[in-house]
TrEMBL record:
A Pfam family matched in the record: PAPS_reduct
Domain Thioredoxin: 311-431
Record keywords: Signal
Any one GO cellular component localisation term in the record: cytoplasm
InterPro entries referenced in this protein's UniProt entry, alphabetically: PAPS_reduct_dom, Rossmann-like_a/b/a_fold, Thioredoxin-like_sf, Thioredoxin_domain
CDD domains: PAPS_reductase
Protein name: Thioredoxin domain-containing protein
Keyword Transmembrane helix recorded: no
Length: 431
């Protein structure tokens, strides 16, 4: 990491004129009497302009630190309102054309029809070429190949596996491919309780450390649209169709909406057309409403309502530059020797992906299992050889634990209990 310009001077507004009166000072009666001359709308507009100017300055300072002090600043861009603001800010600073900031896009093959054409339009507008990543083993833009390899209904059959295949793994691979040391993203405190405490900079505890820059951490959604209006920033066409945010078209609805999938349908309308709101903007701008129309009808495996796409859940950035079980008694198994080794002697094999939060969650217990068993315990990375592990190691999702018995049979451990005692009992019962 470089330290160029870290303490660059930034002009700060002077606040002396706004110093509070002493405790014994009475309010000015002349000021109160002149309230009839007070123009409320002008005051609000001026106050919002002052706020936006400060937020711009603050965000640009954070982006300056990210792009001048790190070698590979990467911005995973979903083209939502906050993301187009960041894109515009990066362009104003010159970091898109000079390549100091790279734009990364994850194509899930389920995005709105307008999303990728919109990306092409802003590439031309700002003079950059996005780095696009999609499901492993599928050519960029080839939905037919995706459906053939993973199934068109994967998201209906297993939403967590869909998140891993279409979002988390390509996201991880993108960060790794681009040698990311600082990740810029558009998360804000205003987006909901899961993000209410984020600051402009965070660190992910991985490898040498991944800096995370949240330049809009303290912005509201209204601030983002105020900025878009002020600078006439190109923005996603879905905002004119009633969507405050967008992700996959399959589970995103306009807000407000009478869509039966919406748990709280409301009448009314709100759109952002020609750089101004039409309808009642409170439906979009109240706290946490930006993402209210996202993940509609989806639930996590534990039954809880889905609120995150998978990329930003705990663990999503944790292991993009390291493997699991890098030391200890767990032995690495390659596809080339997996069948020969496991057929020659009994053993235990976990098929895993290092980016999978469930694999990460069992890392410690599986390592302990390897210490306690007298037979070999292996790890076999499966996300890069899906066809092979599906055909030979009972793998439909990660992690999949198999016991290879003395007859060479590969027996799958079906339980979700991944503690040492439970796994050890299963191994012993199948030997």
């Amino acid at each position: 990491m470089k330290l160029i310009g870290l303490f660059a001077a930034v002009a700060l507004p002077t606040c002396v004129a706004f110093a509070p009166p002493t405790a014994f000072t009475k309010p000015s009666t002349s000021l109160l009497k002149s309230s009839t001359q007070f123009d409320q709308e002008t005051f609000i507009a001026e106050s919002k302009e002052m706020r936006l100017n400060h937020l711009e300055e603050q965000a640009m300072y954070a982006l300056n630190i990210s792009c001048e002090n790190y070698d590979n600043a990467v911005f995973p861009n979903a083209m939502i309102a906050g993301d187009v603001v960041i894109t515009h800010l990066l362009s104003r600073l010159g970091y898109l054309k000079d390549g100091k900031a790279k734009i990364m896009v994850v194509d899930t093959f389920h995005l709105f029809d307008d999303t990728m054409p919109f990306l092409r339009s802003i590439e031309k507008e700002y003079g950059f070429d996005a780095e696009i990543f999609c499901a492993e083993g599928v050519p960029v833009g080839d939905k037919v190949a995706f459906d053939k390899k993973y199934g068109a209904d994967l998201w209906k059959e297993d939403i967590e596996q869909y998140d891993k295949v279409c979002k988390v793994e390509p996201f991880q691979r993108g960060l790794k491919t681009l040698n990311t040391d600082c990740m810029i993203n558009g998360r804000t405190r205003w987006q909901g309780f899961e993000r209410a405490w984020i600051d402009q900079f965070e660190n992910a505890p991985i490898g040498g450390g991944l800096a995370k820059c949240n330049p809009l951490a303290y912005w509201t959604l209204e601030d983002c649209f105020d900025y878009i209006s002020k600078y006439k920033v190109p923005h996603h066409p879905c905002h004119a169709q009633g969507y405050p945010s967008h992700g996959d078209a399959k589970d995103t609805i306009p807000i407000p909406s009478m869509d039966p999938r919406n748990p709280d349908p409301q009448e009314g309308s709100c759109k952002f057309v020609d750089f101004k709101f039409e309808g009642d903007k409170k439906f979009w701008l109240d706290y946490a409403c930006e993402r209210k129309g996202r993940f509609v009808g989806l639930a996590n495996k534990d039954g809880s309502t889905k609120t995150e796409c998978g990329i930003h859940v705990e663990g999503a950035e944790k292991t993009f530059d390291r493997d699991l079980w890098e030391s200890g008694s767990v032995k690495e198994l390659s596809v080339g020797d997996a069948l020969e080794v496991t057929k020659s002697a009994p053993g235990v094999v976990v098929v895993y992906a290092p980016w999978c939060q469930f694999c990460q969650g069992m890392e410690s217990e599986y390592a302990k299992l390897a210490e306690e068993l007298s037979l070999p315990v292996y790890k076999l990375r499966g996300d890069e050889e899906r066809d092979f592990v599906q055909a030979n190691f009972n793998t439909q999702s990660f992690p999949t634990i198999n016991v290879v018995n003395k007859n060479g049979d590969v027996v799958k451990y079906e339980s979700e209990q991944r503690d040492v005692a439970s796994m050890k009992s299963f191994v012993e019962s199948n030997m």
